[in-house]
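During the reporting period the student researcher (J.K.) took over the structure-prediction task from the postdoctoral fellow and processed the backlog of single-chain submissions. One of the processed entries is reproduced below for the supervisory committee.
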Amino acid sequence: MDLNHPDPYPPPFPPPDISQSLLASLHTKLTTPPRLLSTFAGRPSCSIFKIPDSFIAVNGPNLYHPHIGSIGPIYHGLPLLAMIQEHKYLYLSQLLRRLGHLEPLIILRSILDLESRARECYSVRFDHIGRDEFVEMMVVDGCFVIELFKKTMRMVSWEPDDPIVSMQWIFWFLLRDFLRLENQVPFFVLERLFRVTASDGESRAG
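J.K. obtained the following structure tokens:
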């Protein structure tokens, strides 16, 4: 210590003990990986990023948030998007009925080995979503996207009472939601699902 310039904030003497709660809190923070911008974000595999709140504050949430349907984990489970969530399972049921031979177990197993790789595509960690829920979400969301585009391209027929086509505002809202940056599933998941669910008249190559 420089005696000519004494410390203006000398520590109390004797120094107080550090509480165990402070040590425990610091240890938790030191050992908890970043969640809002995970270490995955620095890897080449990361391709789906969460929009920073500062961007949303400037441009408003309507530019970034899905309005009717969630695709992928970032907006998964929001009550506002429950209507289309129900129709995803309806589309998966129609797909399974149309193919006949395909069991849900086969589709789920086809994505199980992609779970870790798919998680690394997102800049945000989803520790609150377990393995089973994540795999189911990839299957349900991915098959919904594939089925909707197959119906749009007339590769398969629309159900006569399908509200997504009979109420055209729903269809156009969905297409816009598919383009939103956060509202995505990895393309390799879609590729795998397309191959697994391809009928005899469709190509399984690739």
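The committee noted the following: The radius of gyration is 24 Å.
J.K. will present the remaining backlog at the next meeting.
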